[in-house]
């Protein structure tokens, strides 16, 4: 299935009754203008609610939904499924943060801990009966994530780059569709670099995972759909260190009283380091599920 901006427009209308239209925060720091998309205020605590909702509302209504997640996608699926009255089972690696596991169960989903990595949890989830909903490599999920960028463009047309944290690439791929030609910039930890490795080497490759942001950005390989969209859009891949991520997260709280998880601070870390291109970039704060 090919995707276009029309799919993002359709997703925007489809999910509108179920998700929040999150605000833009216009401010400045260190003498520079700063624009932040406060997607950590989304239902379920991250942008993942958008893709999950769009997928569950696309096609025939499933009797049951199954997924695998490092945490945020599972929360998004659990929350969306509960709102739509669909039973959900979420497989997570044993390393999942307790706060995320607790919230997945509180949303009404069945939680299954399996394996040391997202890939191992996903392999087990595929054996479970029900419609499998991929965390980032599914057209309906990618289109739903693209609604973040569509909201940014509608509210701030002067934006010339949209900067997102990247794991498996679903949000980044959706951004290429919703950005209306604006540059997509991906930011990853130095030791969780699935998107960066694929875009610099010209093909998806397996990578190691070792970062303070691994629960959200710990995909070992970019999705094929995401790779195709990001490569076609000539997305800009950036890397930041764990120390830069932690400092950026702490600064968001100290300076602006914005509490986000480490993954969400990655775009701000790249911006602080002067690595983000564009005169008027918008940084997406993607989640707050510590």
In short:
With 290 residues, the protein is an alpha/beta fold. It has helices at residues 5-15, 48-57, 72-84, 98-106, 118-125, 139-145, 147-155, 170-178, 194-201, 214-217, 224-232, 242-256, 266-272, and strands at 24-29, 32-37, 65-68, 88-92, 110-113, 131-132, 161-165, 183-189, 236-240, 281-284. It is built from 13 helices and 10 strands.
What does the model show?
This protein has 290 residues and is α/β, with parallel strands linked by helices. It folds into two domains: 5-47 and 140-284, Rossmann fold (3-Layer(aba) Sandwich), CATH 3.40.50.1100; 49-139, Rossmann fold (3-Layer(aba) Sandwich). Helices cover 41% and strands 17% of the residues. It has 13 helices and ten strands. The strands form two sheets. It has a six-stranded mixed sheet, with helices on both faces. It has a four-stranded parallel sheet with strand order 5-4-3-6. The longest helix is centred in the C-terminal third of the chain and has 15 residues, at 242-256. The radius of gyration is 17 Å and the shape is globular.
Q: Which strand order spans the largest sheet, edge to edge or round the barrel? A: 1-2-10-7-8-9
* Corresponding CATH architecture of the largest domain: 3-Layer(aba) Sandwich
Task: Classify the secondary structure makeup into a structural class.
Answer: alpha/beta
Measured as a percent range, the helix fraction is: 40-55%
From N to C, what is the helix and strand string? HEEHEHEHEHEHHEHEHHHEHHE
How many beta strands in the DSSP annotation? 10
Largest beta-sheet details: 6 strands, mixed
Q: How widely separated are the two ends?
A: 34 Å
Low-confidence stretches: none
- Any idea what the radius of gyration is? 17 Å
Work out the helix count.
Answer: 13
CATH topology of the largest domain: Rossmann fold
Beta-strand proportion:
15-25%
Q: Compute the number of structural domains.
A: 2
Shape assignment: globular
Arithmetic mean pLDDT = 94
């Amino acid at each position: 299935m090919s995707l276009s901006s029309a799919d993002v427009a359709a997703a925007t209308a489809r999910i509108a009754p179920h998700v929040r239209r999150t605000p833009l925060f216009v401010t400045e720091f260190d003498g520079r203008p700063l624009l932040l998309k406060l997607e950590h205020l989304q239902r379920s605590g991250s942008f993942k609610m958008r893709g999950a909702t769009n997928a569950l509302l696309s096609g025939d209504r499933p009797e049951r939904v199954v997924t695998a997640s490092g945490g945020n996608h599972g929360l998004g699926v659990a929350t969306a499924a509960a709102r739509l009255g669909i039973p959900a089972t979420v497989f997570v690696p044993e390393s999942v943060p307790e706060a995320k596991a607790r919230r997945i169960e509180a949303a009404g989903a069945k939680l299954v801990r399996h394996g040391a990595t997202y890939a191992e949890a996903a392999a087990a989830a595929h054996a479970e009966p029900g419609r499998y909903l991929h965390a980032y490599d599914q057209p309906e999920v990618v289109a739903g994530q693209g609604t973040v960028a569509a909201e940014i463009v509608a509210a701030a047309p002067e934006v010339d780059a949209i900067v997102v944290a990247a794991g498996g690439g679903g949000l980044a791929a959706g951004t290429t569709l919703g950005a209306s030609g604006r540059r997509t910039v991906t930011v990853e930890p130095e030791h969780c670099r699935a998107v960066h490795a694929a875009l610099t080497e010209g093909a998806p490759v397996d990578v190691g995972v070792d970062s303070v942001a691994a629960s959200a950005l710990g995909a070992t390989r970019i999705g094929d759909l995401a790779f195709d969209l990001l490569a076609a859009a000539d997305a800009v891949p950036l890397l930041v260190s764990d120390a830069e991520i932690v400092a950026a997260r702490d600064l968001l709280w100290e300076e602006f009283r914005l509490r986000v998880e480490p993954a969400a601070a990655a775009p701000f870390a790249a911006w602080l380091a002067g690595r983000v291109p564009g005169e008027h970039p918008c940084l997406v704060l993607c989640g707050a599920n510590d």
